[in-house]
Amino acid sequence: MAELVIAEARREILLLTLALQMHDDLRHALGAASSSGVRLTVLAEDPTDNAGFSGDPGTALADLPAQRLRWPAEERPAKGAAMHAKFVVVDATTALITSANITRRAAGDNLPA
C-alpha cells in the first residue's frame, strides 16, 4: 500500500515509522522516486535514541539518498518513550496513515492489497 502512495510522488516523500525494514517492493518504489529527483526524508525509530529498539533504519536506507531525522532520547517526554505513528506523506498533498509498520510483514499481512 505504501508503495502505491510513493509512486505518486513528484517532489518529496516524508516517511515516519517505528520499524523500517526494506523489502523489494518498497526499495523499488523509493528507488524509482529517488531516480526521478524526489527528495526522501525518513524519521524511523533508531537504537541510538531508544535502547529497547533493535531495528536498523541506517541499513534499510543504505543505498538510498535519504535525509534521516531523529527523535533524540533527551527530547522525548519520558524515558523509554517510543515513536508509534506510521505515515507516508507525498508532495504535502497525499498521506497514508496506518497502524502498520513499514516492513515486509506489515505490507503482506496487515495492509490490504
Label the CATH architecture. 2-Layer Sandwich
The backbone outline, from C-alpha atoms, is: globular
Strand order, largest beta sheet: 3-2-1-4-5
Alpha-carbon distance between the two ends: 6 Å
Oligomer: single chain
Q: Topology as H/E string?
A: HEHEHEEEH
Rounded mean pLDDT is: 88
E-strand count: 5
Strand content: 15-25%
Total count of domains:
1
| Count of helix runs | 4
Query: Quick one: CATH class?
Result: Alpha Beta
Low-pLDDT segments? none
Protein model, in words:
The chain is of the alpha/beta class and 113 residues long. It has a single domain, classed as Endonuclease Chain A (Endonuclease, Chain A), CATH 3.30.870. It has helices spanning 2-7, 24-35, 57-60, 104-110, and strands spanning 12-17, 39-44, 66-69, 86-90, 94-98. The radius of gyration is 14 Å and the shape is globular. The N and C termini lie close together (6 Å). The model has no long low-confidence stretch (mean pLDDT 88).
